[in-house]
Amino acid sequence: MAIATINPTTGETLRTFEAHTDREVDDRLAAASRAFRDWRLTPLAERASMLSRVADVLDRDAEDLARLATLEMGKTLASSRAEVEKCAFVCRHYAQEAERYLADETIASNASRSWVSYQPLGPVLAVMPWNFPYWQVFRFAAPATAAGNVGLLKHASNVPQVALAIEDVFRAAGYPDGVFQTLLVGGGAVERIIRDPRVAAVTLTGSEPAGQSVARTAGEEIKHVVLELGGSDPFLVMPSADIDRAAEVAVAARMINNGQSCIAAKRFIVHADVYDAFTERFVAGMTGSAMGDPMDEGTALGPLATEAIRGELAAQVDATVRDGAKLLAGGKAASRDGWFYEPTVLADIPEGSPGRQEELFGPAAMLFKVGSIDEAIAVANETRFGLGSAAFTNDEAEVARFGRDLEAGCVFVNTMVASDPRLPFGGVKRSGVGRELAGHGIREFVNVKTIAIA
Questions:
Q1: Which positions are catalytic?
Q2: Which of 130, 277, 393, 431 has the most CB atoms in a 10 Å sphere around its CB?
Q3: What are the residue ranges spanned by the domains of the chain?
Q4: Which among 69, 108, 427, 44 is positioned nearest to 260, based on CA atoms?
Q5: CA–CA distance, 78 with 55 (Å, rounded to integer)
């Protein structure tokens, strides 16, 4: 696979890169192994101070970094700026909280003294996607390096300049050589890197097939793995909800990142009592989103990241319509250069169709009409995914039911699903294994070591 910057707004190839050779990869693995020996012994306060400097560099270079993300993968410039800002936030969070998260825990036992110590594992390989090219990396790198691990980034092959820019950010902040490195390699190199004995663990954010492949290799090598995979998140609307507010948030939740987010709302499950009112507002909001050059400040919807992604979305929408779904808006590629797709809304989604069973990565929404909370929960839980979920209701009994019965890693009530450094993030079912962020995330890549003294 080519490692290249292809502007999704125009389809123009702007820059290409030579992949690292096996020898160059081995040199970087050796550097990571050497760096870990010293980095793990660096006082946590010093590691935290460096992480604060990473945040400062992100603030300083925010505009250049944001423009680079928009250029490579097509998200709006406003979204790119917000993403860089969030990366600075996660760095400062772990700079402030890592010591508390990793503090030794005294446990009473038959020993005279016994406690748990959280100690780093070593070099961790991060296989990261293009859709949030900074955030996905920093939400791994901030806790992992604060805990004393070192990072090896295999980024998506369509965002090579972002990958190299991230390495530059850590270098500019004063991180020692080898503590954070980018590997410019294709997907075919990942298995060999995971199997290398110098790699202690692996984390992946990406597709279900990619997660299966990484998990299989890591399992054979008995190495710890964290997976954040796909989602087909439900967005439930009940009669007690503020319908105007629910529809407004629903549009934002579907269109985030040009619709290319694992936690974007994708299946809108609406009670029959408010279905017509919600649908009218929702369709108007979707079709009213301004499509255009993502570098323009007034653009709400930019292109999809690649031509192949647009083709896959179009095929899923077409198949769902052929299966009997009703097309309320959009349903085709936009008539312009680049990889644009019209905001799309489908209703009456048949069982077994792609719109009901698969993740649709782009600005296409599926509408479901239900007659009760039991039916709403059943539709929400019918997919193999279980990442996030949102529910709009002002009924406390319904809030309790959704919190208990929705099969998801998180439930957000009267707001859209979002990741937050202070809260654990991850999914169940086919949406992933393990957790990122908060104290749970920083403890994924540590040895939970029991120490007991007779």
A1: 228, 262
A2: 431
A3: 3-228+428-453, 233-413
A4: 69
A5: 19
Helix (H) or strand (E) holding 233: strand 233-237
In degrees and rounded to multiples of 5, residue 311 shows phi and psi of: -65, -40
Angle at 264 between CA 214 and CA 373, to 5 degrees: 110
- Contact by Cβ (8 Å): 330, 287: yes
Write out pLDDT tens, residues 328-373.
999 999 999 999 999 999 999 999 999 999 999 999 999 999 999 9
Taking Cα atoms as reference points, which of 206, 285, 261 lies closest to residue 75? 261
User: Could you give the angle at the alpha carbon of 429 between the alpha carbons of 423 and 430, nearest 5°?
Assistant: 100
- The CATH class that applies to domain 3-228+428-453 reads alpha beta
SS3 letters across 149-200: CEEEEECCCCCHHHHHHHHHHHHHCCCCCCCEEECCCCHHHHHHHHHCCCCC
38: phi then psi, degrees, rounded to nearest 5: -90, -40
Q: How far apart are CA 8 and CA 309, in angstroms?
A: 11
Kindly report the CATH class assigned to 233-413: alpha beta
Residue with tokens 């936690």: 263
- CATH topology of 3-228+428-453 equal to that of 233-413? no
Work out the burial of residue 183: count CB atoms within 10 Å of its CB; fewer than 13 is exposed, 13-18 middle, 19 or more buried. Answer: buried
Report yes or no: 445 and 439 within 8 Å, Cβ to Cβ.
Answer: no
Question: What is the rounded distance in angstroms from the CA atom of residue 206 to the CA atom of residue 9?
Answer: 23
